[in-house]
Amino acid sequence: MSVSCCCRNLGKTIKKAIPSHHLHLRSLGGSLYRRRIQSSSMETDLKSTFLNVYSVLKSDLLHDPSFEFTNESRLWVDRMLDYNVRGGKLNRGLSVVDSFKLLKQGNDLTEQEVFLSCALGWCIEWLQAYFLVLDDIMDNSVTRRGQPCWFRVPQVGMVAINDGILLRNHIHRILKKHFRDKPYYVDLVDLFNEVELQTACGQMIDLITTFEGEKDLAKYSLSIHRRIVQYKTAYYSFYLPVACALLMAGENLENHIDVKNVLVDMGIYFQVQDDYLDCFADPETLGKIGTDIEDFKCSWLVVKALERCSEEQTKILYENYGKPDPSNVAKVKDLYKELDLEGVFMDYESKSYEKLTGAIEGHQSKAIQAVLKSFLAKIYKRQK
Question: Which Pfam families does the annotation name (predicted)?
Fold first, then answer.
């Protein structure tokens, strides 16, 4: 089914999400209607429209002609997608639509543009789900988004590994179905493949920095932390949504290396926030129980602690970091408080915001400035 056919099918769901008096209908060749979505409605109803597109994409995948589904297998994939793809904050996916809208500089999006930008946003959410399902297994995590990790759900277990592979393959089924006729299709495929590789390499660095049985905090530094974060988080969480919007807008990504650099720096700031929240945030607010200390992660907090510790404090850190016993974890957290790492983080956050704001305002394009400012506003002083 073509994009335009999907747009027609989506008409009813978008009409539910956006009141009819906000839609301007016009005929195109007597067969295809495009609805112009006004800015106020776009902001108010973007998430509901985004979720409606998810339903269309999921239905496509559950009826993919490449596989003969049984009722049991279709129900499994249906449940797996709702549990892992749909259940997040959706910030990465929604950012594609937001960014594309800002790049259009006030021009209303057609229904097809809304659908395609939402579809690309969902590809990123699928990618996120794929990474998280496997990451939770590797980290032996307990909860994700306020509920048990997928592999901990009864009857799932290690089937979750194959589910992760399915999630990864779904991305390219979506791209092929809805973007194959677009001039930027090859660039999109290359972009997703490259970012997936970068993220997997970042995960590899994170996992092998210190092998089990060879734990050595002396190997941890700010440069190692930055390298892990740049590849594991920044490219797919920050650069990818904007790159998707730029491709949809007809831009050549090679002309926007400066934008990539700002977004990577933003992604590093985001991960430092994540490291801070893993230790200091309320698990109910955060939606997960932090395990960076138990998992011997190369966290920004432990790196900063190593910089500030006295000889006695360093000994406490070495004796307790990376051990699962709650008493060991408590000693590390007490040391973090003693070193005032909360204050150190607040100072870092303030300086990072100032630096990023300066870089953004120095960009010559007001549209791209707006995109980057939108990203920064979403994460500055976040609590989860």
Answer: polyprenyl_synt
